[in-house]
Amino acid sequence: MDVVGVAMDKVRRILVYVCKERAAPRRAQFVQSVTGHFTDSGEDEVEVSCTLEKNQFILYKGDRGRGVPLKRPAFCPIKHLSATDAAAIPLDIQQRGVDVGVAILLQTANQRVLLTRRAKELRIFPNVWVPPGGHVELDETLLGAGLRELHEETGLKLEPEQVSPTVLGLWESVFPPMLSRGLPQRHHVVVYMLLHSSLTHLQLQPSLRPSPAEVSACLWAESRLVRAIVSAVDGEDASVQLDDLPSSISVSQVSADGALTESSMPLVVFTSRAPAGGPDVERVSTGTKFALELWLRSLDVPDL
Question: Does pTM surpass 0.85?
Answer without folding.
Answer: yes
